[in-house]
Each structure stands twice: as C-alpha cells, then as structure tokens.
Amino acid sequence: MRHRKPDTPPADDLTDARLYFTGRSLYQDMLADIGRARRDIGLEMYIFDDDAVGRRFRDALVARAAEGCRVRVVYDALGCMHTPAHFFDSMRTKGIEVSAFNPILRDRVLRHWRKLDRRNHRKLLVVDDRAAYLGGINISARLADWEDAHVRIEGPIVHHARTSFEKVWARQFPRVTLRRGRRHALHWQRSLILDGFPAPNFSPIKRAHLHLFSRARRRIRIAHAYLIPDHKTIRSLRKAVRRGVDVNVLVPARSDVTAADWALCHVLGRLLRAGVQVRRHHRTMLHTKAAMADDHYLIVGSANLNRTSFFRNLEIAIWSRDERITRPMAERFDALWDAASPYTLADVQRRGWPRRFLSWLAYQLQFWLPTDQAW
Fold first, then answer.
1. Four-residue CA torsion sign, 290, 294, 295, 297
2. Which SS3 state, helix, strand or coil, does residue 296 take?
C-alpha cells in the first residue's frame, strides 16, 4: 500500500548548521550566542559543573539577565549531584530562573525510588529563536575533551527547539501515541527535531533509528557511547546485513559507566555473529550518539541507543539529510573508524564463559526496569 505524503511540509527551514566534536570547540560559540541574546535564553543541561567552564557560562547568563533578557536554566538533579547548591543559588539571586529536574529528596527516596533514574538527559540551548544547540556535550571542563557530537542550527527550525524547551519548562511531557500513517514520513523530512519524552512502549527517537536502518542500502554508521539496544533494534541491524548493507559500529574501548561496559560486551557478541563490523575507540572517551544511513540520513542528539533513553529519560535529537550536517559527520566517523582497533568474535571468546554470562546478565537488567511513566 502506497503511503501518502504527509500534509506538513518538509522542514528544510534549516538555514545554517554546524557540527562540533568536542566541548573545546563548542563552548566558545555557545558563549558568543549567549552574549548576543536580546530577548530570551533557554538552557537544559544534564551536567552543569561548578568549574572554570561552568562559571564562564554562569557569568555569561548573569550578564544577559542583567541586560533585561529572560534567562531560564533547567538542570538535572542527578547529573548535577556534585555541583554545589550555591552555584545555582547564585544564578537565582542574579535574576535567572532556575529549575532542578526531578530533585532527589531524602525523605522521599524510598517512596519514589522507581522515579530516581528518570532524568532530563537533554543538552539544549535556545537563543532568541535565532539559534539552537543540541547534542551530547555537557558543560564541564573535565568532559570538554571527550569525543562527542553537537550541532548548532539556525532558521525557522529553531522554533521547534524553542517549543520543545517550553514543554519541559512547563513540565508538560506528552505521552506520545503511535499514529497510523506516520511511520514512513521521516524520509520526506529534510531536518526535524525529535523529542524524546517519556512514553510507555513507544519512542519517536527509537522509531527514527529503526526507520534509518531500514532505509540504508549501502552502509550504516553507528557511533554510540552506551550501546545497549533492545532485541528489535538488533534484529533491524541483522536484516540490514542480510540485504547487503555494511554495518559499522564504533564504541568506546572503555566508558565511564562500568555496568554499561559489561552489557556492551554481550551486545557486541550478538552484533558480530550477525555480520556487523565493530571497532573500539581508544584515544579518548567516545561519548557520541550518532547514526547514519549511507551518506543521506543522520540522527544525532542526546539519546543513547538503550531502553533508558528511549522510554524513561527526556531526550532530544535531530533527524537530518542536510549535507551541512551529514557530510562532516561522515568524515569524522571515517577518521575515527580508521584509527580505531577492530573487535572480533575471537575477542569475545577470549573473555571466557563466566564473564560472558555476567555480560548477558548486565544486558538483561535493562528489561527488568519498569517503563510506566507515572510523572
């Protein structure tokens, strides 16, 4: 059955775009855009450290608030658990509106333990409906040199990023339901903001990844820090290999989350047995969250390829086939791929069955977490 093209026009309202691969290259442009703000600044950040980088951002935001801009900051309480309260209090006293997402209250921990891991994992900056930044890079000096991916966008599409921020600010997280006739609309879009709001058993960002994998005809490139996909996602990659697509997966040799590393070992074994090519990045921590189909379609943002990002956290990403985004991402991936070390089934077998069993167990743990979103 032929699918009718959606009534909404393609969002080729992206007038300018730029990719960043480390915080060092990103922060200067973010601060420059903050300094040019005239009306409104909206910032969401999972990690906002009280260090040299964090204080530069705080001072820049305070300066704009002093000039009459409305400045709003949403930080995640768990991601910023090591950031002292006085850091954010100093913003409030200078006219910035600050909100902690899902604060951890000691007297309610036992009663609300099922919600503790439901986090705002987004990294989003919107300035005056003129420019927006989104991706995987936090505000932190200790993370500034990690290999990552972040995008700056301009044009009418920024309005959609603004709308996304307003929903989070107002605590209005819609429970998205799957609408018939919308499944195959993504490839008509030139660039599109994808909101990852909590929704039981459905994720627009997961759907976008599955659609991207199904569209690939020659090559799939995946660079992800915490790659723990569910069975359906793994099946979609296996199907891609069977139809002759080269599937290249780049992961960190070691991440900052030990449990994720154990689960990743099980995933890599399944992917290798399906014919996927795997390499591990050793130089720095690979924190990228990006996937490409051929040289045409790209998803990049804050969401990991795992169940937590799909169903429990607040996330944001961009789907794009704009060459200003896809070309530099493809070139960066290929450079990292060439420098990375191959990982094979022989490497998996050398781990021994006790460690492989523990890896399987770590992978299964994600399916024991509840997905109901009683916010």
1. negative
2. coil
Q: What is the mean pLDDT of residues 226-246?
A: 95
Measure Cα distances from 201 to 17, 51, 78, 269 in Å: 32, 39, 24, 26
With contact defined as beta carbons under 8 Å apart, do 345 and 277 qualify? no
- CB contact at 8 A, 331 and 21: no
Residue listed under structure tokens 């209005």: 172
pLDDT at 109: 44
Class of residue 293 by CB neighbours under 10 A (exposed 0-12, middle 13-18, buried 19+): buried
The distance of Cα 229 from the centroid of its chain, to the nearest Å, equals 14
Domain membership flag for residue 310: yes
**Which region holds residue 171: left if phi is over 0, alpha if psi is between -120 and 50, else beta?**
left
Structure confidence by residue, pLDDT tens digits, 300-359: 999 999 988 888 899 999 999 999 999 999 999 999 999 999 999 999 989 888 989 999
- Residue 198 and residue 173 in contact, taking contact as beta carbons nearer than 8 Å: yes
Number of H helices, E strands in the chain: 11, 15
What's the CATH number where 302 sits?
A: 3.30.870.10
| Two tokens, residue 206 | 């997961």
Q: Please give the tally of structural domains in the chain.
A: 2
- Compute the distance between CA of residue 285 and CA of residue 307 in angstroms, rounded to an integer: 22
Range of the domain at 287: 187-368
